[in-house]
Amino acid sequence: MTHHVLNVDAALGAISEYWQPHRLTSINDYDVKVVKIQGEFVWHTHPDTDELFMVINGELTIQLRDGDVVLGPNDIYVVPRGIEHCPKAENEVQALLFEPKGTVNTGDVGGDMTAQLRELG
């Protein structure tokens, strides 16, 4: 049996573009993605799934219609399915995302910021 260890810092170091998630690994029917974030994303929702954000470095604000959630390093927040949200970061944020395979980053709105999921390695 081969044991394959993945390193989050190395994976994030391989990413040069913002808002372009890369699949680090998968577990069951979920992808674990690494992403760099800076600026403001688009308001969107994921009607059929929750979305977990874990900040590795930086400060991420997840704007919600009823108030903002601010995450720092090692903080985790789950945006419940169907809740409209818009992530933003004044400075670079490095984060992990946990979502079902096939989840589109722009959810139900699509548009220019829709990413093609990329594989690391």
Write out key terms for the chains shown.
Jelly Rolls; globular; single chain; 5% helix; eight-stranded mixed sheet; mainly beta
The CATH class is identified as Mainly Beta
SSE string, helices as H and strands as E: HEEEEEEEE
User: How many DSSP helices?
Assistant: 1
Q: Estimate the global geometry from the Cα principal axes.
A: globular
Radius of gyration: 14 Å
What percent of residues are in strands? Answer: over 45%
Backbone structural class: mainly beta
Low-confidence runs of at least 5 consecutive residues: none
CATH superfamily: Jelly Rolls
Average pLDDT number: 89
Structural write-up:
The protein has 121 residues and is mostly beta strands. Helices cover 5% and strands 46% of the residues. The protein has one helix at 8-13; strands at 22-27, 30-40, 51-57, 60-64, 67-71, 76-79, 85-100, 118-119. Strand 4 (60-64) and strand 5 form a beta hairpin. 23% of the residues are buried. The mean pLDDT is 89.
